[in-house]
Structures are given as structure tokens and as C-alpha cells.
Amino acid sequence: MARILVGCKRVIDYAVKIRVKPDKTGVVKQNVKHSLNPFDEIAVEEAVRMKEAKVAAEVIAVSCGPSQCQETLRTALAMGADKAIHVEIGEKEYERVTSLHVAKILSKVTEEVKADIVIVGKQSIDDDSAQTAQMTASILGWPQASFISKAEKSDDMLKITREIDGGLENITVKLPAVLSADLRLNEPRYATLPNIMKAKKKPMDKKTAADYGVDVTPRFDVISVVDPPTREAGVKVESVDDLIGKLKDAGVV
């Protein structure tokens, strides 16, 4: 029976108003609420549902980052994951960790635990790169199904419905495979108090990127981080001709 590896990223909570640091080197993260990335939460829920449906025997949650990521992993464990792996990366180094670094680590962890399915959120709500699943699949040489809104097991295949610009696309992928969860895949469960208490006793391995032979040396420098420009007020027009004229002036038509 399959073993599922789920990626869990710790991000600033979606309800927090982001503030840029005074020195423009990044955003303020100290004393700010963090939580499990919402798309990764959907990925955890899907993995747990697969286990409940007897599609998988074990769900392993993994997170890369500073020590606070252990709280994020406890959330995944409380939702139903069986065990967790924390790949610790120092807070300063983590500021410039890229999707490629994470994909390399995920691929190594996948090989170590002999996972058959890797599920991650389609993107994180902080950098919105939407690259990790695709890069992980490429490194592993596995089939991939991104932006999925439905997954059903059939023999050694998964029947996938994925969201594309034109609507929905139905495909099949052979296992082992890498999946990325879209918003409409499911609605994550709330972790109950008994499960939160049980999560504290579930195993969590602590590793480093060096343990997997992955170099997390920064590949870029941050020049400046600024707030987006304030949106200008709209203009009221008196007629359709005025509207067309303004659109022409703006080069739209």
C-alpha cells in the first residue's frame, strides 16, 4: 500500500496585514502569526483522506525551515499525518531558500522514506512561485499532476481532474507521482483537541539540508522590498464616447 509524503510550509497567516521592514530588506516576521500554508493544508487533508480510504498506509509530513516549523508539522500531525520530518534551515539562510532548494530536499526525503506519492500545495501564499511540485517531479523523474481538484485511485494509476485556464482537464498518471493541490480539492478538517494532544506524541525526525547533501547557499540577493503602489482613484465619464476616448488614450483599444 502507498506511502504519502506531504510538504508543509510555514507562512505568515493569511489574515495578517503584511508590513515591509523599515530598511526595505524584507517583510516583518517577528511577533507575527504564522500558520500552515492553506494549499498545503489541503494537501494534508487529501493525504489523510487517501489513508482513510485505504489507498495509502502512511502519511508523512515534511517541512523545511527554522525551528518554528515544528509547530506547523504538529498541525499536520493533528490533522491525521502519522509522523513528521523537520529539515532545519537557519532563519537567516531560510530567508533566501528557493523552490529548487526545497524540491531537492523533498526528492531526497522521498527516496529515504520510499514514498509512492508526493503531495504539496499548488503554491505558497508568501512567494506564490507554484514551482515546487514541478521541480520535485523533474528531479525524481516521476509523472506529475498539478493544480488538481479531484483524485481517485484505480489500480496503479490515479484518475485526476485538474484546473486549467479553459476549465477542467481529466488525466491519468501512473504511480509513483507528484501532485499539487488546488483550492477546490477538498475542505480541510479542524484539528480536534484530542488529536492535538495525540500529535504531541507522534514521532518527528529532525534533519538538516546537509544530511541530504543539499546545498542551500543563497542564489540571489535582495536589493529592495517595497510596498505596492497605491491604487489611483477611478475617473467617472459622462458618455460611451468619453469612455472609448480614454481607453484609446491609454492604448487599450
Individual helix count: 7
Mean pLDDT over the residues: 92
State the CATH architecture. 3-Layer(aba) Sandwich
* Poorly predicted residue ranges: none
CATH superfamily placement: HUPs
Spatial order of the strands in the main sheet? 9-8-7-10-6-1-4-5-11
The coarse overall form would be globular
Instruction: Classify the fold: give the CATH topology.
Output: Rossmann fold
Total number of domains: 1
Quote the beta fraction: 25-35%
Oligomer: single chain
Helix content: 25-40%
What structural class do helix, strand and pairing data support? Answer: alpha/beta
The SSE order reads EEEHEHEHHEHEEEEHEH
Task: Compute the separation of the termini in Å.
Answer: 58 Å
How many beta-strand segments?
Answer: 11
Which value, in Å, is the CA radius of gyration?
21 Å
Name of the level-1 CATH class: Alpha Beta
Q: Specify the biggest β-sheet.
A: 9 strands, mixed
